[in-house]
Amino acid sequence: MIELNNIHKSFDDKHVLKGISTQFKPGETNLVIGASGSGKSVLMKCMVGLVTPNEGSIIYDDRNFTELDYKDVREVRREIGMLFQGGALFDSSTVQENVEFPMRMFTKMTPKERLERVNFCLNCVQLDGVNDKYPAEISGGMKKRVGIARAIALDIKYLFCDEPNSGLDPVTSRVIDGLIHDITKEFGITTIINTHDMKTVFDIGDNIIFIYEGNKWWEGRKEDVTGSDNPELKEFINASYFA
To answer: What is the DSSP string of 94-150?
Structure first.
């Protein structure tokens, strides 16, 4: 579980995050929604240590991430997988080398052990037999699936996804959603997804958090989203559907 307590973040005189508190539970897809500039990307960066909050604490299973030393921060990061918006694959490396990268960085696995793990992760995302292909040789949807395989390469506890459907057609988007959902449930991962896609919310969302102008403006289960009387949430939902 990840717990956020009163997270504030400012850049110069701009107060981006304003006292956000919530919990993200294992085995659930936790979706953070909100308009561009609402603060949801900064929130994710705080949670993975790319940005330091000015105030508040981030707790990973009883470990206060905001107070850990370098060695302990590195250990927590070993348990984190990231799926970036653009895929962020290394163009000059094969699919296998891309998925292997976290293992080379954080483990002392043998080449045989790494290959077995690569093949396991590629099987999880339905990409058997593409080990030797380069990113330029596969489709955008396949690149996202390779990104998921790389994100789970270290037998992670926490998965962060930043706009995982960005740039994908509707059919491929649903495939990516399904893979993230199934991996979350099967391995009991705590998954946090930043998204504008309301279809993702209704297809795979468990816990939904709506960020508005740096505040946690609404939180609830996906079945409660459409029944909410929160005017800003309603406006966001309508704008998302008819954009």
So the answer is: -HHHHHHHHHHHH----HHHHHHHHHHHHHHTT-TT-TT--GGGS-HHHHHHHHHHH
161, with CB counted inside 10 A (0-12, 13-18, 19+), is buried
* 2-79+157-241 topology per CATH: Rossmann fold (3.40.50)
Enter the tokens of residue 48. 């993975």
Residue 192 pLDDT class (50, 70, 90 cuts): very high
| Predicted TM-score (pTM) of this structure | 0.90
89 and 105 Cβ atoms separated by less than 8 Å: no
Task: Please tell me the least confidently modeled range out of 73-87, 166-180, 218-232.
Answer: 73-87
Burial of 92 (0-12, 13-18, 19+ CB in 10 A): exposed
Domain ranges of the chain: 2-79+157-241, 92-155
- Other beta carbons within 10 Å of 28: 21
Neighbouring residues of 175: CB distance < 8 A, sequence distance ≥ 6: 141
For 133-143, b/e burial (b = at least 16 CB within 10 A) is ebbeebeebbb
- Identify residue 179 by its one-letter amino acid code: L
* Confidence (pLDDT) at 86: 64
Mean pLDDT value of segment 18-28: 96
- 48, 102, 122 from 155: Cα distances, Å: 17, 11, 13
